[in-house]
Amino acid sequence: MKKLALLLVLFSMLACSSAPITGRTQILIVPKYEVLEQSSLQYEEVKKESKILNNQDSIRVKKVGNKIAAAVESFLNSDPAYAGMADDYSWEFNLIESEDVNAWCMPGGKVAVYTGILKYAKDEDSLAVIMGHEIAHAVAEHGRERMSQELIKNYGAVTLSSVFSQNPTAATNLFSQAYGISSELVTLKYSRDHEKEADKLGVIFMAMAGYNPNTAVDFWEKMAADKETEPLEFFSTHPNSATRIQLIKEYIVSPEFSKYIR
Ligand SMILES: [Zn+2]
C-alpha cells in the first residue's frame, strides 16, 4: 500500500508540468530521455532520406535559427524557474529540398525547413517567424506531450513504470504516432492549442533575438492570401488563418508579451 502511494506521488509529480511563459498545464509522463533519443534517431533518418541543401538559403536558415535558439537559451538560463532546461537542446537547422510548404521541429531542437516555404520568407524577419514558431514547439515540449497523450491512450497511465522496460519498441511507436512519420514524410499532429501556443511563444522568441514581431502578421497574411498554399504543419489543425492572425495581432500588444520584450 505504501508503495502504491509512493508511486502515485511520483506519478503526479511527473505529470504536473506547465508550459513556459503561458503556464498552460501539461501532462508529460514519457521520460525526457526516451523522447530525445527517438528524436535524434528519427531526425538522422530524415536527413539520410532527404536532400539537405548547403547554399545561401541554408546558411540563412541556420543563421536565423541559431540566433533565436541562443536568445531562448539565455532567457531560460536567466530564470531559475527554467533551471537546466536549456541543457536539453542540441539545436540543428537544416534546409530540405522539397516543394512542400512545410517546416517542423522535433524535440530537443531538431528543425527542418523545406524550400517550398521560402517563397514566403525572403528576408530574415519573416524566416524568423517560421523559426520562432518551430523552436516554440520544442521549448514547450509539445512532442513529449503528444507522446504522453498517446501513451495514456495506448497503455493506460497505471502501467507507466513497466511500459518502457517490457516493451522495447514502445518509445519508437509513441514517437511515430505523435509525429506521423512514414519514410521521409513528417506530418506533425499537434493540437490547435499547441499551434496557438507556438504562435505566441514564437513571436516572443523572435523578438528576443532582435527580429521584428510585427512581421508575423504580414507573414501569415501573405500565406493566407495564397489560396493554393496548404502548409502541412501550419494550417492543418488551425480553425482558420483569420483567427490566427487576430490572435497574433492581439498578443504582440498584450501585457504578457511586453513582460518579456522591452
Ligand atoms: Zn506548428
UniProtKB/TrEMBL annotation:
InterPro entries: Mito/Outer_Membr_Metalloprot, Peptidase_M48. Binds 1 zinc ion per subunit. Belongs to the peptidase M48 family. GO terms for molecular function: metal ion binding; metalloendopeptidase activity. This is Peptidase M48 Ste24p. Residues 1-21 form the signal peptide. It holds the Pfam family Peptidase_M48. Residues 74-251 form the Peptidase M48 domain. It comes from the Bacteria. One of its GO terms (cellular component) is membrane. Coiled coil: none annotated. One of its GO terms (biological process) is proteolysis involved in protein catabolic process. Keywords: Hydrolase, Metal-binding, Metalloprotease, Protease, Signal, Zinc. The keyword Hydrolase applies. Its cofactor is Zn(2+).
